[in-house]
Amino acid sequence: MSEEKTDKVPEKKTESLMDHIKTLFIAALVALTVRTFFYEPFHIPSGSMEPSLLVGDYLFVSKFSYGYSNYSFPFSPNILSDRLFGSTPKRGDVVVFRLPSDDKIDYIKRVIGLPGDKVQVKKGILYINDKAIERRIISGGSYSIYLETFPDDTESHKIMEFSDRGPLDNTPIFVVPEGHFFAMGDNRDNSLDSRAESGHVGFVPFKNLIGRAEIIFFSVDNNVSWWNPLNIPSSIRGYRLLKLIN
User: Is the pLDDT assigned to residue 198 strictly greater than 80?
Assistant: First the structure.
């Protein structure tokens, strides 16, 4: 009886190990599927989208919002000649895209100009198709926060201006080509975006869009020390958790 029990123990251990491997494989497959086709997490590393997005924000980007391109998949394999199930973003969407000058880098900006639009900034005021876009100041100081509202949008979004005399506060007229978009950061004086053409950002091709920023699921103060777990709870920005992005 003792020998029979001993013979069965390794078999049970083997079955248990295989169950764990199967569980891990299924979990990895589900996570990869969700990340590829539905939602991908992103981290905000710079202040170019302040005050809408802060350094330390973690957000989900919907991959299905504009359809799928080669950049939707891990390692960006060249398997699609065109965008699959493509849907055009609307003006005001906050989007993640691959930098046209270096498609290994992800950028996040707000869509300002659609194909065929004329975009210009004059003395800090944004003009689309020769019409000044309304902005209303809501706070001032060392920098000003404005509410900016597009004519075809029912919602306003916040922008930040340190002055109206910065290097990108007066631009030529940009005519957005077909199949491209004009994107700008909400921190208008501290954003490398479509206003910076040569060798930088320029117009964003439709194929470079990864998805639309939807919700902030986690946020920590930029000064958080990850090496000291005891300080992490006090660094969490509770007021930003599960905050929708507009």
Answer: no
